[in-house]
What we know:
single chain; alpha/beta; five-stranded parallel beta sheet; three-stranded mixed beta sheet; 23 helices; 8 strands; 50% helix
Amino acid sequence: MSYQVLARKWRPRTFESLVGQEHIVKALRHALDQKRLHHAYLFSGTRGVGKTTLARILAKALNCETAGISSNPCGKCSACMEIDAGRFVDLMEVDAATNTKVDEMRQLLENSVYAPTRGRFKVYVIDEVHMLSTSAFNAMLKTLEEPPEHIKFILATTDPQKIPVTVLSRCLQFNLKQMTSQAIADHLEKILSEEKLSGEAGALRLLAEGAQGSMRDALSLLDQAIAYSAGSVTEQSVRAMLGAIDDTFLYSILEALARGDAAAVLAIAEDMRARSFAFDRALQDLGVLLHRIALVQAVPGAVDAAGSLRERLAALARALGPEEIQLYYQIAIHGRQDLPFAPDEFAGFTMPLLRMLAFSPGASDSSESERSGPAKARHPDAVKRADERQPAAHAKFDGDWPKLANSLNLGGVAKQLAQASELAGFDGETLELRVPPAAKHLAEKGFQDKLRGALQERFGKPVRLTVTIRETTGNTARDRAAAVIGQDAFVRDLVENFDATIVESSIKPAQ
């Protein structure tokens, strides 16, 4: 016997076996059982989600010799078997991509007036119908508007936007959804069980993600994986086949980014190049991981991870701020788009990573010594495992807030918030700050969270932070810096002799 590919062997033949399109199946079953039949149906959706399969099942439901017009065709009568085999005389499948001309459509419609040869209805399945010419669509309109009772049209398209509204308005429209990775993986597991083959859950997850919502693509990839791994579908073999990246590399990259460790980032990238990883896929998977971290930050229980990766995912969600995650995600997405224009793939992969370091919060406020010396960690303990965290050294606070504000491990807007605020009170657990109305834009929650984290790192214990918007008395780090500048002899000469003005909002205290 000749081998039959899985996509054909496991093509659904009943409404019950169709995966992921329950909303459409429910509507069609009700219509068939109640004999409320329309003359034209339009199925739209991306490739491999079941448009043509659904059309064939509907054709069986309309022409079954045993069950009659029913949502449960028998699948055993001659009409059902011939439709499954693609040789039923009253089922015409037309590929509009190769039959676009008006003359071909007119010939098809002229034949439609004749009664069915074998079945109850003549069923015309026109695939990729949006490829028809304007003249061909116009030729269809009359028949769609006043069709013979024995005719049923089933139109399928991946691009319904290109179909004239005059045609759309004469059809019942159904939009087939892309299938979820979980639904695809579950179906692949069922097929492997029926085929008496073994498959690891991680391998099936990779195949499902690689299919991007298309069950046909998933089955083709499964065929390829079975051949590649000689029958036993393992995660390692599927990663090698797809060029997929081991998640641990991507976690390590983000952990190095959180520390601000450029040398470690480049070392990991070099290791990936030595292993011949596909950098296009690496940037794609990096975007997926950043999305998962953002979900963990927003809804901690929304993402599940196995084993040690669960701890690393949670640690990254704590170490990276929401604004950093959003920034890194955009850089990864745009880096993937720019990859074809890079000098080479390695440069196209490492430049987005260096861009993440360059544009991350705090990078612009790095001191000259940091620029000239080795990279320093912005959050030294941020990405250690939960069971390896060391308590920070306890620091005493003498009430000099401007001095403390300048010495905190902060950068970017969070540092500006600390320097523009004034101490209102501190009882050892709760620190109260005042921010002048002119600087209230600095007091957003994300920047307060960063300041709170830096304070907890400094004091070695949890610190509650409250920030109120009200006028200050002039005892902020920025005020002190402005006073020092105002007392400088050179600055006084500029003010007195040239009528210069000190723009206090531009002053940034140095540590």
